[in-house]
């Protein structure tokens, strides 16, 4: 697809003659930005061009989709975030932002700028948040095809083009909304499953059940389980399990008269020596000194 961009002035007569559908498309485009070149290029009109050091503030919403290449994005209340292919981000009115491709990759971008009463309503939905403006869309053929239709509609104009552009923009926002909801549901299911496995770990602290066995018990692969568990808890399953055992052992050392060997055995450790070595590495004291330390 050829690169294309068009910026529409709000006072153009053809817009005045057509009904207000609550979304007014102000600019739309597709750009392939080459490697090792200045971004944004000089073809950006006044009001849209920005210097990296200063960033930019717009008076409109923009939806920007990075189809290929990598880069960075930064906005008010959001630190610098790496951009990967398939990332979509929203720009919000009156919120400072800046973004650019990596010099050694460049990137391909699609964007549409819009405003209007219905646009304001849509952008107040839960999944559209100026503090979380990035959504990982990945490759979505329907999304790309609608973007191409939108660009062609603005490129070739004709009767009813503004209404059609508004409809296509609503379709794009609908796909983004659906993608965000599915991701939220997926994350919710993931969190619930990991919480169930965490419960199993607590219930089996006195055994030697392995993380692989826990994954099989819950009908998921160990590779997925380990990645998801660390993503949610910040620790690998094995370390999480070991930390719980050490905490339980420490409590038993303080609150019971069981020997160190018995404490080790009841917490699933193979030997007193192994337990003592692991306990000291975690608690910085040997089991006997920990017990005697007030």
From TrEMBL:
Pfam families: AraC_binding, HTH_18. InterPro entries: AraC-bd (IPR003313), Homeodomain-like_sf (IPR009057), HTH-like (IPR037923), HTH_AraC (IPR018060), Tscrpt_reg_AraC-type_HTH (IPR020449). Residues 195-293 form the HTH araC/xylS-type domain. It comes from the Bacteria. The keyword Lyase does not apply. Keywords: DNA-binding, Transcription, Transcription regulation. This is AraC family transcriptional regulator. It comes from Pedobacter riviphilus.
